[in-house]
Fold each of these.
Amino acid sequence: MAGGLIASVLTPHTPRMGIEEKAPPFVKGLIEGERELGRALRAMQPDLFVLQTAHWVSTFHWFVTAHAVHKGICFSDEAPDLIPGEPYERQGDPEFARALAQSLNAASIPCGINDSPHYDWDYGTYVPLKYVDPEARIPVVTMPTVICADLKENLAVGPVVHETAARLGRRVIFVSSCALSHKLIRGPELWPQEEQQALDRKILELFSQGRVKELIEFIPHFSKAADAEMGGRTICGMIGAAQALERAHGAVHGQRYGAYTQSSGTGNAAVCITPGKAA
């Protein structure tokens, strides 16, 4: 099968999902949605996940993880009561990681390699992979969210991932691990304000209808008005990957999996965009 991007995905990662037995009722729909999403993604027979997480934060440069095996303990320093230390082990893809870093640098997107044996996953990486691929059969290359990268640069990363995947013959799913609206408040059961919920509904509608051009036009407003996580940078990675899918296949459509729910004033949903028109 030919390589390239085969799907672009948005996944929530609230740390309240980290240990299912302790998860409050209002995030159960997110957990079930990610499980359902995972069944759909695994059925696509991908070779690799490329995951951009909002909780590995790089100041200046992009990095890609080039570990042959990801193995460690995920500990949430901001919420040690929720994720006190969860073990993980999953294959990486060093060849793809190094090729992607080279391609990003060639596109004037400064990128380095992270192959440090001391690196452990953040929960934005651990949580979605736990539910999307619980048996850890699909390798992963992870990327941070970069403070010095504007929205335009984040949009440009997806097409480079697609080109690299096509050249290496990898069937790749791009995963953006972040919330929608992200105006945090104390009170885990609290919803976003109605203004933020309306913005979330709007962007979910654009995702479901595969309206990539409108997503690109809407994302600067959404990022500011909805207080999007990491200023909208991470979600732009997913939109850029959707644009690469549209360019390659002519049309795309989206599907939401599970509930749209709250967590401490944030809006969260799992979405997958794939080639073709909606049925």
Amino acid sequence: MSRWRAIVFDLDDTLYPERDYVRGGFVAAAEWAASELDEERQAVFDELWASFEAGIRGDTFDRWLERHGHAGEVNRRAMISAYRGHLPQLEPYEDVRPTLEALRGTVQLGLITEGARAVQEAKLAALGLRPAFDKVLILGEDERGEWKPSPRPFEDWLVGTGIAPAEAVYLGDNPAKDFLGARRAGWSSIRIRRPDGLHRDEEPFAPEAAPDFEVADLESLAASLQPPAASNQSPIANRQSPVSGEKQILRPLARPQDDGST
């Protein structure tokens, strides 16, 4: 059985802890608030971080500005700009560099990520990982309609590589988009469940969104990776790991129960 010819990685919480970027961004936002709004820097940071730890996403700055009487689009944009414009200080997970080095030359290595383009570029620069990849694809905010779980990023990554979809595998962490997008494009997928990952406790919302395999770290990926054998088995059933000689068990995903309406 031939091996995969391309292993393509997600970025956030796959190659480095995303909370480290968030922490640095909140420091920058707190410094802006101290300078422009005469707020106490540490108090601002503590409140923003507490919101993050409580699971608040997307409107953290709006909530903080409203609570402190600074609501308004100008302040909102400035706070977001401070967050996104900070110079991140990031380190990859310990298993990342050894894995990429071990795989170098055996397969095509790639990366697919999305978000504010300057932010994702800054993360890659801080991590120093861009040279490790044969091809990097970043989808910016102007391409939001094509973000995962759209198959488009996976299709675009393959352009010019001579690699077929069935010969590629995507390794990510987010069950809401990573694995469904890969499956729609005809790729295989592997979930990495980092202990500190923001999506570590989330499960796929449907069987089609489940990964083909799950691993706890990247150490085993340096071994001989092989594509899954053709099977009529559910994509969420227990399977042989793509890593030779190892067994990885996927956590089963319950199908939606019949509500009696049909």
Amino acid sequence: MTRPSEASVVPIRITLDGRTGVTLWATPWEEDGEEWQAFLGVGRRVLVFGSTEEMSEHLRSGEENDLTDHPRWKDLVALTPAELEPDEDFSFDLDGGYDLAASDPDPYTVSELSDLLDLVQRVAEVCDDGTLLRLVEETPEFARLLSDEVSFAGSEGEQRWTAVGEVVEQSWESLLERFAGLIEWRGEPVAGDAAGEAGADSGGATVAVVDDEPTPQPAAAPPAAVVVGEVGDIEEAPEDETEDGEFSVWEVAGILPISVTLPSGTGFTLRTYQGDDDEPIFLGSDLTIDLFRTAAGLEDYTDSDSDHDLAEMLTWPDIRDAEDLPVEPAPEEVYDLRGPSPEAVDLALEIADYCELEGVTAVLTRRPDGEVPFDEWTAAINEIETCVRWHD
């Protein structure tokens, strides 16, 4: 592991959501028996600037950031905008993930997509975003892509690559949305293609790794940096993915409680959506929805290790492990299916989709505005009742 005297900082270029900017990555180093890495950022946000001039101005401004206490901070401040220009090898086009996954698995393509995931993983570590970290590390296809021991050559390799492509198609958008929440744009971000032209105009500047003599007395590792690996005892700040209470754990996980009233009673369950088609997924299994007659019953169930379809979601641990997570559906998540209405029809169609009730789907898709004859509605709800598993 790199010692403080050898610690380096690398300018990188990031393209995300059609915008391109530059920031700094402090590559991993060891100090006082602990391993560190960091980005130019503040707290749980990485600062990305529209140009190296804007980034250079920020470095000289005296504004505190997560690199202020880096062993090479004094060297960083002295760099010119040209010296801060990222090398081509340190440009990460996250918007291009779809195209890479759809291409043939040649070594260049595999390496490029792996590099994008590696960047996301490192930012998630530094910004202490456990949800994004799990999305990268606990998705088997992503984990294989990050492993140097997995080959994508030959027939078996092609099958692995096909699986990677399917996961990228399903999960890349949610991954980028989560990643974007960790980025704070400063200055004027450049449109994607213009950034490459700007880099070319700079005379082909190479990566500005800071490798001059260290400062006489290197400062301690920045407190905002995250320990990488198990290298000693350190007190880590507790993870708060709710943005100081601005969002509930339900909203962060993307799994919401809903209340459903049927002729047989009122109950509570959970629902989320998956994939590009927003396929509804309910708390349930075997084409059957688990419906609890009390909110407390559902709360107790979420604390268990029961096997159900939502347990396969990467954000389910956020729900299962949360403390004091009340089941209180928002007003728009309360549905009465005893009579037809636009909202009732929408939920009935989602239940029919999840439970594969093709007859219900056929009847209700002809009348999406909620104007369903009561006899047809009653027949549809009676069939929906057959795929509900009640819990007292």
